[in-house]
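Hey, resending since the last one bounced:
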Amino acid sequence: MTALCYEFKGVERNGRRRRGVIRAADESDAYRKLSASGVTPLQLKPATERSSLFSRGRITKADIAALTRELSVLVQARIPIAQGLLSIAEHERNIELRKMVHVLAGAIESGQTISEALTKYERVFGRVYIETMKAAEASGNLASVTEHLADMLDRQMESAQQLRRAMTYPAIVIATVVAALGVILTFVVPKFEQMFASNQITLPLATRVVQAAGHFFNAHWPFVLGGLAALIVALRYWIRTVTGRKAAEEVMLRVPYVRKVIVAVAVGRFARVLGIALGSGLSIIDAILLAGRATGRPLFVNECEEIADRLRQGDRLIDAMLESRYLPPFAQRMLGAGRDATELAGAGRLVAAHYEREASHLTKNVSSVIEPLLTVLLAVVVLVVALAVFLPMWEMVKVNR
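The structure tokens again:
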């Protein structure tokens, strides 16, 4: 029987809501597994990423989250990891994932630790994931750390889905505006141009600008479209470089609402990984460096390195964070109150929960912030086109009188 991935929403015994991905043979098996793990399922449906034909040949975040949760169950049940992974692979229909799990099982069976086996797939799991697993193995906290990692991956997927949903409407509107402008410049403007030329009237500025844009687009449209495509590809490549990411981040942080979203997401992820890393046995300095890398923000990484340097010099954590440009005062106070690794791990979880809620709220409201800007954009486009067409027609009416 093949294993399927299901997205679930449920409630834990303590009343906390939980959502994520679980792999099971069918819906009944998924309900049984969730109940056994202390989660009362409220909603269960096939995972959208796994339902796509395109995802069956690649390893998705949903796969990693589900695999991590299953790994947590294996550790808690004291089942040999290699044996458990082979059992998972046997029922896996994703070819690439099945191959990877087989390789991991073989490496662990040959005597490697889990983190050593994972290094072969660093591009899939990420350096932060592997380093956290390594620390968890060393401290003996593998069961709780894998569960926390699975929860974190579930939250990251949920945030990404919220952002995609929020950006769908603006993307459709912008694409529609661009398509409408292309049609106007290609087909509408030439028709009116012939009519205006036959009446020999002086064209206003708006009409001349629209005409010039239409002539340029009609004469050079292959170069325009090709240039735009090349620009997009070049920007994507540049943003993947360290210099490009830093420059793009600097620009985005200057936009007030975007800065709020970036900071909330980064601080939430930083605090979440900080709590997990400290719980896995890492020192405070190593945990801060690892949590900084987990944010994926070069400027935040640099700031965490500066905080670590101050800690090495003997500063208290609260003092080391005072000069931070990105850690909000609330996060500084909460994290700075931790007197040891255990208290700091608990504070990290509280800070993470706070900023994850804030990031979720801000992400859901992205469309409400963008909609007024889109309305202004549409109004400007309509106004320019209307002036370009109706002003000359008004002149024609006056001349014909």
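The longest strand covers residues 4-12.

Sorry for the duplicate.
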